[in-house]
Automatic annotation (TrEMBL):
Comp. bias intervals (Basic and acidic residues): 363-397
Cross-referenced SUPFAM superfamilies: P-loop containing nucleoside triphosphate hydrolases
The keyword Methyltransferase appears for this protein: no
Domain Septin-type G: from-to ranges: 38-311
GO cellular component, one term: cell cortex
Lineage: Eukaryota, Fungi, Dikarya, Basidiomycota, Agaricomycotina
Source organism per UniProt: Sistotremastrum suecicum HHB10207 ss-3
Ranges where the record places region Disordered: 363-417
Feature: compositional bias, Polar residues: 1-10
Swiss-Prot/TrEMBL keywords: GTP-binding, Nucleotide-binding
Protein name: Septin
Biased amino acid composition, Basic residues: 408-417
GO molecular function, one term: GTP binding
Domain of life per record: Eukaryota
Amino acid sequence: GSPLASQNSGSTVVRKKLMGYVGFANLPNQVHRKSVRKGFHFTTMVVGESGLGKSTLINTLFNTQLYPAKEPLPPSAERPKTVSIESISADIEENGVRLRLTVVDTPGFGDFVNNDESWKPIVDNIESRFDAYLEQENRVNRQKIVDNRVHACLYFIQPTGHSLKPIDIEFMRRLHAKVNLIPIIAKADTLTDDEVFNFKQRVLADIAFHNIHIFQAPIYENEDEETVAENEEIASKIPFAVVGSNQEVQTADGRTVRGRSYPWGVIEVDNEDHCDFVKLRQMLIRTYMEELREHTNNVLYENWRSEKLLGMGVVQDISVFKEINPAAKTAEERALHETKLAKMEAEMKMVFQQKVQEKEAKLKQSEEELYSRHRDMKDSLERQRLELEDKKRRLESGRPLTPERTNPTKKKGFLRT
Ligand code: GDP
């Protein structure tokens, strides 16, 4: 065994070399088999004005006819006046892995004259799904928890080429703390490449300006270069400019592809040079589906849950709350830091004042010393001057020097010379 030992919550963990095969290297396979057997649940929400191609894109993404082709409503038809929430589920399977896919549609969003509260039914729906999950967690029997929480929200931006509309900003601001937002530029085939590029910049600038958090794929350390490059490539495409189509069309060089046919050529859905559809699918399904589920559970749901329980007066383990609530944690850290700074400043001021006082006292003392020395010197000079003057007068008048008029301390030596 290696002598390396680490201290872990009071108990010592010693690294040992195994003498033979034990079998726990198979753990990942066990987890893998079990989760494959159980299957996966994934719920994605689509939001955006009608006609932006939401149903088409979902069908294209999962390669199924999840949504029946919509007949456009005749102008005379009775239109709903509120945003409704509809969900469709489908069990799909790929290489033996089963996925229960639920798509939550929000027809009516952005379609009214007054769209002020369009976001509200959507927030309510997301929260009621959190509620349902919390209720299951609080049951005595928690064996079969069904996760119907929304794991991702595809937000369709109209391809105006300008910037985000107030309704887009309002929706994202209301939702970003509750769901993984993935912004999408709809029907990208209606814009030129340059227009797409500029529009993306403006959308990103708006998102940053309004402090909106969109889903960011985490970049882990210790990952191989290829994976890092791939992840960065995905991140660089946000907001994904997509084209949806379930139609197979013929390209000029005779290939059959999913795409949209125009007089000037064919836009291929699955061609990365034509649009970001492949990258969006990679983000949503191939690379980050589990990450989206985890982030929903560990961050979005957890924050909502803590707030809800605190609001209900449940005294939480505050340290746990802080762990999962980075905002509370930073606020507390900042407060601590500020008190520390203030204390340090006060101490420094005190020391400084003390030093100044000492210095002043010393200066005063040396000033006094100087002054008295100066006075002594002046006195003695004055005495010498008087003496000399006296002597001079005597010499001039020819009178001998009288001992009583001279300085008693100096007269003898002076007289004899
Ligand atoms: P939804 O109301 O948002 O679900 O939109 P639909 O998926 O029903 O699509 C509305 C119309 O837009 C249909 O006629 C689609 O064929 C068309 N459409 C869908 N996706 C695209 C796209 O990427 N580009 C273009 N040009 N048209 C699209």
